[in-house]
Amino acid sequence: MSRFDLTPPTDAQRQAITAGLTPDERRVLLQHGTEAAFCGVFLDNKKDGVYTCRFCGLPLFRSSAKFDSGTGWPSFFATYDDTHLRYIRDTSYGMVRTEEVCARCGSHLGHVFPDGPPPTGHRHCLNSVALGFVEQGESLPDLLGRGVPEGQPEPAAD
C-alpha cells in the first residue's frame, strides 16, 4: 500500500493542471498519444533521482531502475511502487499491448512489455513528455497540495 494519497485530483485541480500543459503534453497524457522515438528529454538523462507523473507529481520510477532499451524511449525495469501504476489492455494499431497509466490521475504514460532485463523482466517504456524528474536530494513535487508523506526516502534511495 502506498504512503502517497492516490485519490484522483478534483475537477478544479484537473482543470488547473490541464491549462498549464503544452499541446504535446495534452496529446500524450490526456489523449493517449506517443512522442516520437529518440527525441524525448529524458531518454539520455543519467542523473540520480525520481521520475514522476507530469500531471499529478506521483513518483513512478527511480533512476536506479532505468536502462537503455535501444527503443528510443526512457525504459525502466522496476516501478517506484507497484500501486502507483494501473494497467490497461491496449489493442490499438492492430497490436495487443499493456498500457500504463498513473494510478492517481489516470494519465497515459506509455506501455509495459515482458522483454526487460532481470530481475523483473519488465520493460516500462515511457514517454518523456509524460514524466517529470526530481534530482536526488530535492523534494518530491506536491502538485495537488496534499503534502509528501513523512519519512519518504530521498528520491534515488532503493
Structure description:
- This is peptide-methionine (R)-S-oxide reductase.
- GO terms for molecular function: peptide-methionine (R)-S-oxide reductase activity.
- Keywords: Oxidoreductase.
- Belongs to the MsrB Met sulfoxide reductase family.
- Its EC number is 1.8.4.12.
- The structure is a single chain.
- The protein is α+β, with helices and mostly antiparallel strands.
- It has one domain: Metal Binding Protein, Guanine Nucleotide Exchange Factor, Chain A.
- The strands form 2 sheets. A 6-stranded antiparallel beta sheet has the order 3-4-8-7-6-5, with no helix packed on it.
- A hairpin with a 6-residue loop joins strand 5 and strand 6.
- It is globular and about 35 Å long.
- The two termini are 17 Å apart.
- The relative contact order is 0.24.
- The C terminus is likely disordered.
Write the layout of secondary structure elements.
Blueprint (H helix, E strand, L loop, with lengths): L10 H9 L3 H7 L19 E5 L5 E4 L3 E2 L7 E2 L8 E6 L6 E6 L5 E6 L9 E4 L4 E5 L23
Antiparallel strand pairs: 1-2, 1-9, 3-4, 4-8, 5-6, 6-7, 7-8
